[in-house]
Design brief:
By secondary structure, this protein is of the alpha/beta class. It contains 49 helices and 28 strands. Helix 30 crosses helix 35.
Amino acid sequence: MDRMVFRLRQLPHNINSSSTVRLLSKALGINSSAIRVYSLARSLDLWIPSKVATLMFDDAVEMESILEEGRSPNITKQGDEWRIKVHDLPNSLVLDMHFRGLTVLYDPPLACHTADCIAISGLASHPFGSWQPKDSSKSSMWIRDTLPKSLPHIRPILYGYDTTLFGSQSFQNIFDLALGLISQLKANGWASSTCKPLAFLAHSLGGIVLKQAIVSLANRVERDDPILHAMKGAVLFGVPNLGMEQSNLEAVVEGQPNMQLVSDLSLDSAYLQQLDQQFSGISYLQSALLYWCYETKKSPTVTRDSNGKWSRTGAEEILVTPESATRGIYRQTTQSDLIIPINEDHSNIVKFSENDPNYAIVAQKLAQILPRGESASKAVIAQTTSNSEVASGQEYDFGSIMESLYVPEGDRRVMEVEDKFGHTFDWVYDSPEPGFTQWLQSGTPLFWINGKPGSGKSTLMKFIYKDRRTSDLLSDWRGYSNYIRAGFFFHYRGSPIQKSFEGLLKSVLSQIISRSPSLSRFLWPLFDKESLTPDDWSLQMLQRGFHRILVQEETPLHLCLFLDALDEYDGRLEFICKFLVDLAAIPPTPNKRIKVCFSSRPWDVFIHTFRCCHGFRIHDFTQEDIRDYCLGSIKEERLPSVALENLIPDIVTRSRGVFLWVKLVVKDLAQVTRTSTLSEVDLKKQLESLPLELDSYYAEIIRRIPYVHRWKTYAMLEITVRFRGPLRPTALMFAVTCSESRTYQEALNSVQTLSGEKDSEFVDIVRRDSRRYCGGLIEVVSTDYSAYYIQVLHQTVEEFVTNPKFKQIVLEDRARITVENGYAFLAKYAFSFSPEHPYFDKFASRVFARAYEQTSGRSMKVFLDSIPNDILQFYCSIPTPLAFAVAAGLRLYINESLTQSPKLLRDCRERLLTVNGLSDTDDFVQTIKVLLDGGFDANRDPALFIALVRKAHQSQVSDSLASESGNQTVGDTVISLIELLLDHGQDPNLDIKDDDFRPARPSLLERVFAKRSSSGEDGHNTRMITPLDYLFSTKDEWGKKSMVEMKVIYQVISLILGRGGVIKATQRASFRAALDVLSSKNLPIGDLEAKLLHLSLSPPEPSRQSFGSKLRKTTSRLLN
């Protein structure tokens, strides 16, 4: 065994380096002086606190005998790692050299830990060793040893994955590697809203894996956005963005399962080109800071010696050219600060030794990506409550409260859930083992029903929520504690209100006060108005209202909540878990009890939080139910043969408690018996050939569909999962029909082929096409008011479709050149109707086109440019594609247009800055920045600057924003935009109409003069002032403003003064009084005062003197 670096995991969380040496010395039976620990840090495991170390042993020969020859009975080899049993430790230590997964190399002090950096190694390289200089000591590694000294606020982490080339039996491709990285990030904390900002160091293939992971995350933006938003940038080394020389590598993998992995890295790889275009757009929209390092030395290639052994001793070649390593910006002088030449070969480009000058450059770039002090923690909305009591005589409008809390789709999900079949699930009441009836009669607050996808959790929850036995068991026979039952069934495929915390609170509050109207009086004091509307219920108000009802002691409250599918909550699961834990912590009293029965999949976050909670796994009790359901499903197929009934025991066994699997299998087998005559043996073989896992079953269903129809399969499923809210059958079929259209006219022609169909006919069309093109994976659902809409068969179908592998499964080779997704198809559909059409929606096209850019990294430029201006006038106040792109926030479209026409914005005469009004969103700020950076003259559309100045003194500047950048207010956006405009040449002294100007009443002679001399506007009735004048004119209101509001005014005044702002109408006494107010708010006024003193503060009175002179001259002329 050569001298090697080892990793030691599962060390006690409170251990230090010296204790680690003593512990390992005793366990291995070697001298402690032979063990050298180089790093010791907390592991990333969210549930089991432990530490991980990197270390070396002085005597490699002795270690080989200890580890390989099994000298110690407490050491067990498992694969390529060793389990070391240590007395008094609950878990064995794990020693390895492979470094797979995530390895923390340094623990910053908690007070200064503000960011993380993950290093991803390249093709056929070691996760740790590939970053080490090539020397025999193996004692130095710059990410572990040097980076913490330079950037102590960053936690360095290695990511290891298997990319062995020679002799590999793995058929994983880049998609698989990227999904592995995403899974590791999600499992180790980066799917949390409180994760730190994140940067990457990526070498060679590692950069391609990172790019694919980012593209895949964007495609699933609603679930995985915390990871995407945490990613601030990367330093990438020798990444073959445009391919690499790999003819020698092809020889190594010839005939092996990993040939596709190497092939995807070739110089003519269409996959790499497509990936780079998507990554370029997505990283731009995320404002990621990327630096590209390229090699300037040739590298030895791989060759086979006479003994058949492969080694890097072949002819030297340029493996990754500067053009490929820099994504083609190698010769672009405008972006030269983003590229870094390193005078090493492809392997040594990341092997920095001590005092390596290239290290200093990389560390400096990393510091720019993750500056000290930045934090990505996003504040959770504070659940502030009012403790004031409700006056007993206060009147409130119960009807108004109920109407304001009403949610039309609130009960829709409960109605959609299938009713139980026959006597299935009766065991929940009849058998003591599940413990449900005992829980209903106990004081225990929580009961958790968990199970696999498709195992009937929602059907069971609907059953126990609605069944009278639940109410009977909850009730007190004395009549003292009649429980209010309230339910909420999360529905990730539904509208926002059906999957949000806001929807949960609104629904539960409505149910509570409808059953106990007296509780509504605790809600009314939240509002100072006579009647309420749905818009009055912000999330904060809902939280406060629910909390007031829970903490009050005047009115009895015995509440039992039934919450289904917590895993479909559209937010951080940690938050919803904390909500339940807090409910359970409310102490019971004679007048108050809170109980919650909830269901979910057995995900780690739920297991960790509720592992000691009462409850059961549903699939442990449903074997008989599955049998009955199977028999009933076979009877529904109305088959004459009893052959399927004989297979019921096998179907039940193979189902493993998943009702949905049984439903799919029975339909499949029924179809087989209808189309062919098979013996029972053949049917059993058919059953055994069907996949056991649902996602594999879905893939099998897709593969049966003839390839010629697969585009329709792709379009129908993509549109169904991307659309949020009720999707009408008409909308689905229109969007599918124009999905392949490249231009507006093509889309219009496609839609017109369906214009003769009636709405009612589309229901049957979708049902037919779902069976034909989707294998029944989407379904038509009806509502109580005879409306129809489309949804996928089950939540697991949506997860299958949003998995990056779905496109490969359904489109096969075509997937490599297909970027468009359901959002693109929906955008084309939205443009296809005139304003007279009942389906016309002015804003839908904007929403879908922008969502397409965000999820694909590509623009819809070809399609948008094909739309005639007379059509665009219905979608935008300025009827041009560019103006529409600005209104919709399509930054990729704008950039692509600038690439084709660099002077486009410089020569533009349209008022683009205010084409969409004024918004407070990050996206609006970024769109304005794109326009200004692209050459648009801010003074061509001064209305934005004036609107921002006016907004700076309004009270809403203190309102919080749901910003990707963290805690932001409206005022922060106002300041950012004003500074942005001034930086790009905005005139700081624009004329603003003084709305408060009230001229003195003129005398009779003045009115006569004005009548004779004025033919137009009366100058006495208006006055134009500068932005600074305007802000100082509001000083009388400053004393009532909060500190947040005053800081906004102060910063805006400072910005305008610093860019040449002047005052024309503000007198010295007035601005002095304004400065006094600022000083009283502890705001520094020295600089402001010095600058204001240099301005002309007392202009001559414009009114009487000049007018009197004119009057005397005119009178003299008239008399003479």
